[in-house]
Fold each of these.
Amino acid sequence: MALSKKIRSVRFVLAFWYSLIVLIAFTLFGGSVYLYLQHQLDKELEQNLVEEVDWIYRLIQVNSEGMIPSDVVPSLSQDAEQRIIEHFNTAPQNYIVLLTSTEGTILYKSGTNGQQFLLETNIPSDKTLLQSLQNSANGSLRVAARRVGPLIIQVAYSEDPTHSVMSHLLAIFGVIVPVVLFVAFSAGWLMSGMILRPISTISTMANRITAQNLSERIPARDVDDELGTLIHTMNGMIARLQASFEEMKQFSMNVAHELKTPLTILKGESELALNKSLAPQEAEDLATTYLEETVRMSRIVDDLLTLAKADAGQLTIAHDEIRIDELIQELYEDTVILSLKKNIAVELTGNQSATVLGDRSRLRQLFRALIMNAVHYTEPGGTIRIACSCTTSTVAVAIQDTGIGIPEESLPKIFQRFYRVDQARSRVSGGSGLGLSIAKWIVESHNGAIAVQSSVGKGSTFTVTLPLLRSHSSK
Ligand code: ADP
């Protein structure tokens, strides 16, 4: 098991591929040397044989002084024979020279070789024939032959020396290959170890970084290479982790703080109630406070639960066909009643008919949260305008108020959890600081977008844009 893991390790794989490439390169080189050498040796042998045949051919010419004319079979002159013997005595050993008549009568043969013909094929007269042949007495022979009138010249040389050189070369390769393999694998192993060393340094450093010291970073490399990019990526990841840890810490502190306030009120009121006997009116006031704080706490817990489930992907969004104009009409009517108490005018400035794909109760929750905020943050005598309009692909719902407005620096933060521009005012209005976070989640889960424009003292406009399924304006 441990061995198979080692074999699959990056270091082993790198060393393996390195040695394989070296082996292939060496085999190609060795093969080329082998073939080239064999070709050269063959060529040299053939050249020598052809030259020897040509030499005899020039020495003995039909009807020249090298031949003794005869009616039946020509024979070799004494002088010619002497010169051939002398010539081949000085030439390297292993030459076999055979001069015969075309009928097979031996005119001259070197050594004790009793053969009549080396080659039995038709020997041409216009060129020298080259062939290889296996001979039981002499082994593998390379033969050059040429016919000159009634005479056949054959010169052969053993191929064994060439074969022996080649097999020696093969034997040398056979010894060198394992050595090359061993050296290549060791070099590959060392090199891959050197390459991978910075990675193990990085992982040791990365291991040291825990939730307690997320501000630490892996030291950057001087070289701008792949490892540098890896370090940069990991540092980026640690920075993102640090940011989300910070966010989580802040979030937990916010939750604790939000719940602590109503709990402190409940505790104080309870202690007061226990220490003295209460008049009926006091008991009623106390019960009202209990109820208010409990409602506030359960609203916070409900909102938190919604966001937690949304984060975990546990909330499913329905994809029903929803008439946005009808939904806006209902909400408008509710808001008119709701705003009466606060003396705020509500206007529906436009309500184009449009259908979107979505979740009716979630969309209702979204627009209600925006309208409730508009009511909360608008002073008596103000106005809220609601408008629904379509483009070819989207429907936009704008909720505009003439309320207190949002300072510019707070605009990017208002969708963050628990963010409130004015802590005291929001709390008095019963807000948890989670309404816009939930609104943003609902919009995004409908593939839409939410935007805000605001000016302090003048009012705010929240615009929700959703993908349009169908517009009914032409009907
Ligand atoms: P809250 O429950 O406190 O209203 P929200 O998430 O709904 O929380 O809103 C976050 C903050 O954004 C609010 O506390 C308020 O300061 C600001 N805000 C939201 N809507 C408006 C608005 N229509 N006018 C002015 N300020 C607003």
Amino acid sequence: MIIALKKEIRKEEREKLISWLESYGVKTHISEGEFQTVIGLVGDTTRIDTDLISGLEIVQSVTRISEPFKKANRKFHPDDTVIRVTDEVAFGGGCFQIIAGPCSVESEDQVETIARAVKKSGAGMLRGGAFKPRTSPYDFQGLHGEGIRILLEVKRRTGMPVITEIMDIAHLPLFEQVDVIQVGARNMQNFELLKELGRIDKPILLKRGLANNMKELLMSAEYIMAGGNEQVILCERGVRTFETYTRNTLDLSAVAVLHELSHLPVVVDPSHATGAARYVKPMAMAAAACGADGLMIEVHNDPPHALCDGPQSLTPEQFDDVVGAVRKVRAAIA
Ligand code: PEP
Ligand code: MN
């Protein structure tokens, strides 16, 4: 951060500002030019409020020269972070995984049928929502604790690690045996939830908010990491635009940009991004081609009767075809 001071300020005022800045644990570097005095800050400036400094009488301008995300920043960790879920399942640093399963856990039979099918096709992880963030309070809200019990039972029977979404930190005890906790798009900026997840020792898959930019996604990752939990997987799931032919607009540039800015793995969810089963395959292939560290794909044994997100859900047969195509893409770019 660089703070340019106004001309003709008193030395005492300048010294007062410097000692206040240093009380945040940063180092200051003064450069007294012929026309202007500039204070450069080195260190962790995330706790320093630029608006507050800009508003000071003696300050002319404030420019941040380092990104506000530190722990998520590639400059702080040049190598890719590998998030290891089990001995076989990991994301990042060349490790690629496909997460598949229904939007919502509906019954034990449903989850087990889908899990066995997607595992056979090559999915490494099973997904299924137990707490569903629905736009309408009259829509299926998920099976809650019973949904998590079903997922864990299917995990025990199939050996697949599981991921499911948390909406309220009060439910955290239910997630003890869950392998990866998902923070959905609607909770990406639920900062109190993020802070609590920063205190646990479990991978978190953080989905990009419906209308959030990449910096905001990285800052949300930073919330989790600042608390000590550095196991964050970023997920691009499309953002809301003026387009209506797709549910959201899949921003694949996020994969390239986030990989440049951060060392965290980036997973792409082509199901929520497009909202239509027929677009999932081309987008999954494109995501693999641009270097995504994994995919999250909704699969249902009976999409027309799914309790949530049927139109974007693949049948197990369609999923098998997508996995084959993604494998070919990955082999081609290897
Ligand atoms: C989900 O994965 O089931 C989900 C609700 O996704 P998103 O938060 O991306 O809408
Ligand atoms: Mn869904």
